[in-house]
Amino acid sequence: MNEALIHKQSSYFQNLQVYLREFVYGGIDGAVTTFAVVAGGFGADLNTGIIIILGFANLLADGFSMSVGAYLSAKSDKEKYKKHESLEYWEVENTPELEREEITEIYKAKGFQGDLLEKVVNQITSNKDLWVAEMMKDELHLMMETKSPFKIGLATLVSFITVGFIPLLVYLWTYFYPSDSNIFLWTSILTALAFVVIGALKSLVNQTSATKSIAETVSLGLLAALVAYYVGDLLQNFFTT
Fold it and tell me: Quick one: CA dihedral 166, 168, 171, 177, positive or negative?
């Protein structure tokens, strides 16, 4: 049983690594959009209950919309690849000389010449699958997406809702357990910490500086919050005067 549990945990962490990009960008969008709603509500001087309602409506609707978009995009990319792959197989089978010439031109452009060029072309064209794979990669510049479209959408949804829930956490807690603390201040602090963590993860995905990635992510969240706050404040003044 322990081995089964270890295997299950190992599989979970492998999936997390594979879909880390989707988790990171879903989390960024979730935190930015929900925090913007909270900041706009605060700027408009809305009460806690209304901010919670708007926040959750945004969190669930946008999370679902984004995950569906990610799923459909990944599914479309796979279908596009399969369509062009089928066409390349047909061309290899029905117009092999033309396709061989295309392979020759591709490898000439890469610097291959003479006998070496002939050997490389012979090797590639001796295997239909390899031949088509080379045409897909070098002629059409298409790469097969190995990730599951469903898991891409699921990772996006989970991260959007999980990270996007953080800006609502203090408001929800205060709604059930009222206190005199500055709700928006604590919300801003927690959300900033979330941006720091998700920014650090983004640096792993993009192989960039952690400091730069964190600064960009925090700045993006701050800018969105400032815009939402002042828009909310402006609209509140306009409609109540």
Answer: negative
Amino acid in the structure at residue 88: E
pTM, rounded to two decimals: 0.81
Q: What share of the chain is helix, strand, coil (3-state, %, to 5)?
A: 85, 0, 15
Contact 9, 145 (CB under 8 A): no
Alpha-carbon radius of gyration of the chain: 26
Whether 63 contacts 199, CB under 8 Å: no
* Distance separating alpha carbons of residues 136 and 165, to the nearest angstrom: 42
Query: Residues 125-147: pLDDT tens digits?
Result: 999 999 999 999 998 888 888 88
Instruction: Supply the mean pLDDT for the chain.
Output: 89
Tokens of 123: 């090797």
